[in-house]
Amino acid sequence: MSAMIQEDKHAAIIKRLARELGFDFCGIAKAGFLEEEAPRLEAWLNNHYHGKMAYMANHFDKRLDPTKLVEGATIVVSLIYNYFPEKKLPEGEKDYKIAKYAYGKDYHFVIKDKLKEYLYRLKEEVGDVEGRAFVDSAPVMERQWAEKAGLGWRGKNSLLLNRNMGSFFFIAELIIDLKATPDDPVTKDYCGSCTRCMDACPTDAIVQPGVVDGSSCISYFTIELKDELPSSMKDKFANWMFGCDICQDVCPWNRFSRPHQEPEFLPHPEMEEMSKRDWEEITQETFSKVFQKSAVKRTKLTGLRRNVRFLKESNKEITNGQVED
């Protein structure tokens, strides 16, 4: 069998296993140094757009070259896994809101288990394969690799957009030493002149098309920042207490979003019933029960209480007409 036919066969097996394990899309890119991304990443860091996320400045070389993460790696397999809910939690103007990705069980656990199964089954079919699985858990530039693998393009909000399902999905990777036929990258920007995500961002975090000042993002403030929230942001959070979906909700491509089929991503029943007052008075017992295996645990109860308190105070000031310009 010629090398080209063998690589085509491996690519077909990789994509078939991805479908069988519930991934919506799968693409393959040749592993190597992301030369075009190096100056962009350096500029982003020099502008301090990572805020207090010090880890973003670590492992610069590894972020740009997966062969430094996995010795002998030949391909990066990028995978998309849908999390768009069939039923949204309340997202009215006065509701406290949680980003949709955090409704159910922490995606790190759900997808990592699938990736372990993926590698096991791949080895069963093609023989010895060395590599590692990643899901937002290492210095891997997942959107860039997914773009190179033909899964979508990066929108003005910097998220990967897929023409068939928008952006409400997780991205995962297998970096392995198997030789397989790569896919053609997406080279066209299908956003065109649309700027809805930029226009809708309350904190003006999208500083230019494709560039997000992470230190100004609502998700950064409500999840990553451990300090007290800045008073200058008091009227800008639109009641998001964990994460934010604004730039995705307004994106026209998300009209193609379809409900996921993953039971693990369903919200805890009690979360669906929680009122605004319940969030304001949440106890450790309730937090531990409702968010036992949730990404929301990342903020801990103290962080969630801080966020809710900040929103409550902001709403009170808006109501009283005391918000300063």
From TrEMBL:
Sequence positions that bind [4Fe-4S] cluster 2: C201, C217, C244, C247
GO CC, alphabetical: cytoplasm
GO molecular function terms attached to this record: 4 iron, 4 sulfur cluster binding; cobalamin binding; epoxyqueuosine reductase activity; metal ion binding
Residues annotated for [4Fe-4S] cluster 1 binding in this entry: C191, C194, C197, C251
Organism: Echinicola soli
This protein's pathway: tRNA modification; tRNA-queuosine biosynthesis
Cofactor note: Binds 2 [4Fe-4S] clusters per monomer.
A Pfam family the protein falls into: QueG_DUF1730
Lineage: Bacteria, Pseudomonadati, Bacteroidota, Cytophagia, Cytophagales
Binding site for tRNA: K226
Family membership: Belongs to the QueG family.
UniProt-annotated catalytic positions: D136
Protein name: Epoxyqueuosine reductase
Reaction(s) catalysed by this chain's protein: epoxyqueuosine(34) in tRNA + AH2 = queuosine(34) in tRNA + A + H2O
EC code: 1.17.99.6
